[in-house]
Each structure stands twice: as structure tokens, then as C-alpha cells.
Amino acid sequence: MKIATILPFAHLALERFNDYHMALAHLIDACPEYEKFFRAASDRGNFVIIDNGVVERGNPMGVAELLSRAWRIKASEVILPDRIGDAYATCRNGKKALEQIGDLCQAMAVPQGRTLSEWRDCLKVMLDWPVQTIGISRFTRAFAPDRATLLMQAPELVQSSKDIHLLGCAGDPVEAWNIEVQWPGRVRGIDSGIAAICAQEGLLLEPGTIKPAVELNFHAKHLDGNLLRTNVLWWRHRCSGVEVGR
To answer: How would you write the chain as a 3-class SS string?
Structure first.
């Protein structure tokens, strides 16, 4: 499973040797170095996903604006507009966005719903779309205890040819390893800023950690570098099922 670590602007270099990234569209204009980092990653042949901003802003970025930013960083994949908990609006907006994307890059569709039944209905629609990837939001915890359990309820996705990406992480990422054990190699990747958020709050990532209810300050310049590096290493190894000493 590929792992994309979301970091503040001043600490992006910690991801310079990774080949799988998540760029947040609403930050492309916030810092010139942010755009340059992901453009350079794309130029090296790395896989760069660009998110639509719905989690950070409450509403997804407009398609034209999103595609403009995707073009600037040569994104490999764009996440279609979705509405958290709203299956109908997500399907409607995603289908319209697909018409505008064309062959700029591949697309990721993110099923939504207030219940498992709504989420599965949304998923079934998206499996017929010309998208490469299905993204599974961490907000599915509203109706499923974890995404391993959710995948067991979605055999049509597991058995499909679509890539799968886990969007975000609500805490201890042992969930990712449990999925890898259950379906080896089936999930392409996961992303999260939990390592940086915990470092921002002075917390050491460890088994059982719950994600602090705060936003990541992307402008932070004075995080404890040793704590951040330790958290990033632990998060990456935890997703991969590797035991890490302190």
C-alpha cells in the first residue's frame, strides 16, 4: 500500500523521497513552494493526487478552478467533487465534473451517504463511471466501525478492477494494515496529516491514538522536528504493519 503523508509547507522535504503524494487544491495558491514541490514530484514521475477541498472548506472547489490547479502541478489524478453524507449531490456533481475532465488526468470518485445503504447505492453508480479509482472517506465511520468492515460489505468494489484509496485517517492507522492483511495489494494507497497534527499538538503517535480535533496549520514553521520525524516514521510503518521501537 502506498502512503501519502500530508505536511506543513516548511516540512514538505520529509516527503521528497516518496513517490505517492496528496496535494490539497485550496493550498496551491497559498505558498509558491507548495506548488513547486508537487510539480517537481510530477516531473520525477511520482503519482500526485489533487484533492477537491471539501473536507477543509466544507464545499468542493469548482471544477474549472480545480482542473486549473491540477494542470499547474501536472496531477496524476483528481478527486471528483463530493458532498460529505450526500449521495445524490455527490453523484450529480461528480458526473458533471467527469464531462469536463476529459483526458487531462485520471479521476477518483468518492461514494457518500448517510447510511451504509445510501453509500453502497452511490458506489454502485460510480463503479460504472470511467474513473480509475474509488476513494473511501474516513467519514464512513458514521455507519461502519472501520473501512475494513466497510469493504467486507462492498464485494462489488473489492472484486472490481478499480483502484482503491483510503482518504484520511481518524487515528491509529492500524486499520490500513488490517485491510492489507485481509486483501493483500488490493488497496492502492492511503493519505493523512495525522503525523503532523499530532506533532503540532505535542503528541507522540502510538497505538490507540485518536486524531486531535484540530486543523493542521500548514504555515507552522516551528514544529518539533524530531517529534514530527518520529511521528511520520511511525505512521508509515504502522500502515505497513511494521513494529517500530521508540
So the answer is: CEEEECCCHHHHHHHCCCCEEEEEHHHCCCCHHHHHHHHHHHHCCCEEEEECCHHHHCCCCCHHHHHHHHHHCCCCEEECCCCCCCHHHHHHHHHHHHHHHCCCCEEEECCCCCCHHHHHHHHHHHCCCCCCEEEEEHHHHHCCCCHHHHHHCCHHHHCCCCEEEEECCCECCHHHHHHHHHCCCCCCEEEECHHHHHHHCCCCCCCCCECCCCCCCCCCCCCCHHHHHHHHHHHHHHHCCCCCCC
Which domains, ranges and CATH numbers included, belong to the chain?
2-239 (3.20.20.105)
Q: How far apart are CA 38 and CA 235, in angstroms?
A: 21
Give the model confidence (pLDDT) of 188-200 as tens digits: 999 999 999 999 9
Distance CA 228, CA 11 (A): 9
Q: What type of residue is 216? A: L
Reported as a single tens digit per residue, the pLDDT across 121-137 is 999 999 999 999 999 99
